[in-house]
Design goal:
Helix content of chain B: over 70%
Oligomer: heterodimer
Number of helices of chain B: 6
Distance between the termini of chain B: 56 Å
Structural class of chain B: mainly alpha
Number of domains of chain B: 1
Largest interface: A-B, 50 and 47 residues
CATH class of chain A: Mainly Alpha
CATH superfamily of chain A: Sodium/glucose cotransporter
Chain lengths: 501, 130
């Protein structure tokens, strides 16, 4: 691959990201600007931003790599990531916006009137964020190595650096501009090469992929584990999306609950359009880049295809375009997660921490730098595991903790602070042990299967503990729960009393 | 002698006004703001209809996408069926699912907003024409 084009592409995306970020900086003056863009982002902007933020390295590179390697079974991932938004729409979008909170810990405190719940939720936001950041940083290193031959750490450090500059300088407002720009960049970067690649494939006489039968049909390997794994991926992705910190924080930037719903519906369309494309790369990759399977570098298939199938300047230019898209994917997702981690740590610092005297915005800036160091070190030291796989652990953790908190908090009056804490800690520990076991020990048989995709058993534990302990501590139901329900569920234009009393 | 009579008449005119609020019909908004039994019933019925709409979507997902793995596993005819040389599961999982999800979201929003409109008319009947 031509190094010059690749480097130029990466540089352009970096400059454009920082440039649009600086443009946003001119508008962000108050704390509210900084955190949630003063809640004035229109649905079209907001949904482009959500799409840009959500489509990570796992979507841009990971899905095609998985399809190349494992075939039809892997199509469940993008389906799950899209369906997660539908679940978010129907169970939490409007009430969450109406709760008036900035973050999930804020929501927990508003709903349950407990500082302890807030603290547990804050720790979880940081944990989920780190689990999600690590593969993004690793993917960045991998991409830059594929394109330029630079050592892996260069790309990792580069992405982390740009993200910190961006978050520190402009906050959410600039992030919204950047993210919206990056959705369209990612879609374009994946869409244009498809026309050339499919044309080349047609000229080539439309060869079929050469693969075992199992590759062509979902559940080629007809057995219990593969059925369990599929359903567990479904549970994790369907229910985990609503609990991802960088996804939820976007809903506070809608002007009202009505806009929050419209935003989510547009997001469904944007994601559905995008996810039609990675499958094509995966299948073409099986035909033209089967050797990536043996070298274990399937995550790079999207970047490799143009030079392999087309060659020449066209191939080089398209490869550069795809590199730009991949970099946009790392930057946007990492910025979003870093922003939400920084928001939570920053609020904690300026409210109850040692730095009570520093301003909120300073706290946010310090927190952004601090919050990114740990996943950076993890990414640099840990061995690379498949990008799409490690992202699933973050989904499973979110589905086992924040999903029950949000769903029960919004729809069930009986939830108590004790119940919420028990559910988050219990579900969180189970879903947190699974990746540690899988990476450190790698057990065989059914135990290994249960650990590699934990959501199907950890989500019921989270829900069960939350409901069970709440029923045991009925006296702990907050006295103002009726007022909170009025606030969560009545449309904003109706003039009722929304105070918490 | 006529002076005091006229004076007491004035007092009588103002006295019905002080007891007037007791005869005015209480608005749904007041019932909700004061968390009375009736206000609670209105709120619960709004929440219940919204939850019903959400659960309908969840159930539809379970019976459609949720049933796909088992369908593929049990019925080879589906897996073997080809359209334009591409096996049916690839069409279903790779393409058809996405417009389906969008449609489901669209139907849900119509339901949820209708429930909110009904509720708004109940609470603020004076703004119906606005």
């Amino acid at each position: 691959m031509n190094t010059t084009y690749g480097v130029v592409a990466v540089a352009l995306v970096a400059v454009a990201t920082l440039g649009i970020g600086a443009f946003g900086l001119r508008f962000s003056r108050t704390t509210s600007d900084f955190y949630v863009a003063s809640r004035s982002v229109s649905p079209v902007w907001n949904s482009s931003a959500i799409g840009g933020e959500y489509l990570s390295a796992a979507s841009f590179l990971g899905v095609a790599g998985l399809v190349l390697a494992y075939g039809a079974d892997m199509l469940w991932y993008p389906i799950g990531w899209t369906t997660g938004y539908l679940m978010l729409l129907v169970f939490v979008a409007a009430p969450l916006r109406r709760s008036g909170a900035y973050t999930i810990p804020d929501f927990a405190q508003v709903r349950l009137q407990s500082v302890r719940v807030r603290q547990v939720a804050s720790v979880l936001v940081v944990a989920i964020g780190w689990l999600y950041l690590m593969p993004q940083f690793q993917g960045a290193g991998l991409t830059l190595r594929t394109v330029t031959g630079a050592p892996t750490w260069v790309g990792t450090v580069l992405v982390a650096g740009i993200v910190v500059i961006n978050v520190v300088s402009g906050g959410m407002r600039s992030i919204t501009f950047v993210q919206a720009f990056q959705y369209w960049l990612k879609l374009t970067a994946l869409l244009i090469p498809v026309f050339f690649l499919v044309h080349a494939w047609t000229d080539d006489g439309r060869p079929s992929p050469v693969a075992p039968d199992a590759w062509f049909s979902p559940f080629g390997g007809t057995d219990g584990p593969s059925l369990y794994l599929t359903y567990s991926v479904m549970v994790a992705t369907f229910l985990g999306t609503m609990g991802l910190p960088h996804v939820v924080v976007r809903f506070y930037t809608n002007p009202d609950g009505h806009a929050a719903r419209r935003t989510t519906l547009i997001v469904l369309a944007l994601l559905g359009t995008f996810y039609l494309l990675p499958t094509i790369y995966g299948v073409l990759g099986r035909i033209y880049a089967g050797d990536l399977l043996t070298s274990g570098r399937t995550d790079t298939v999207v970047l490799e295809l143009p030079s392999r199938m087309l060659g020449g300047t066209t191939g080089e230019l398209l490869a550069a375009l795809l590199t730009a898209g991949a970099f946009a994917a790392f930057l946007s997702t990492s910025s979003g997660i870093t922003m939400s981690i920084a928001g939570v740590i920053g609020q904690g610092m300026s409210r109850e921490g040692p730095a009570r005297r520093i301003s909120t915005i300073t706290a946010l800036r310090v927190a952004a730098v601090g919050g990114i160091v740990v996943p950076l070190v993890l990414a640099l030291s840990a061995d690379r595991i498949s990008v799409a796989n490690s992202v699933t652990f973050a989904f499973a953790l979110a589905a086992s903790t924040f999903c029950p908190l949000l769903v029960l908090g919004i729809w069930w009056r009986g939830l108590t602070a004790a119940g919420a804490i028990a559910g988050m800690i219990g579900g969180g520990l189970c879903a947190g042990i699974a990746p540690v076991m899988t990476i450190a020990w790698g057990p065989d048989g059914w135990l290994g299967v249960l650990m590699s995709q934990p959501a199907a058993w950890t989500v019921p534990i989270g829900f069960g503990l939350m409901v069970g302990v709440s029923l045991l501590t009925r006296g702990g139901v907050p006295g103002n729960v009726s007022r909170t329900m009025v606030r969560l569920h009545t449309p904003e234009h109706i003039d009722v009393d929304r105070s918490s009393r | 002698m006529t002076e005091p009579e006229r004076y007491s008449g004035r007092v009588r005119v103002t006295s019905p006004l002080t007891s007037a609020p007791a005869h005015v019909r209480r608005s749904v908004r007041q019932e909700i703001d004061e968390s009375t039994g009736i206000g609670e019933i209105y709120m619960r019925s709004l929440i219940r209809s919204q939850l019903r709409a959400a659960l309908t979507v969840a159930l539809t997902l379970m019976l459609s996408i949720g049933a796909l793995p088992i369908t593929f596993l049990l019925f080879d005819a589906v897996t073997d069926f080809e359209v334009l040389g591409v096996p049916a599961p690839w069409w279903i999982l790779g393409v058809l699912v996405y417009p389906g999800l969008f449609l489901l979201g669209w139907v849900y929003i119509r339901q949820a907003e209708r429930a909110e409109r009904d509720f708004a008319e109940l609470v603020e009947p004076e703004r119906r024409d606005g």
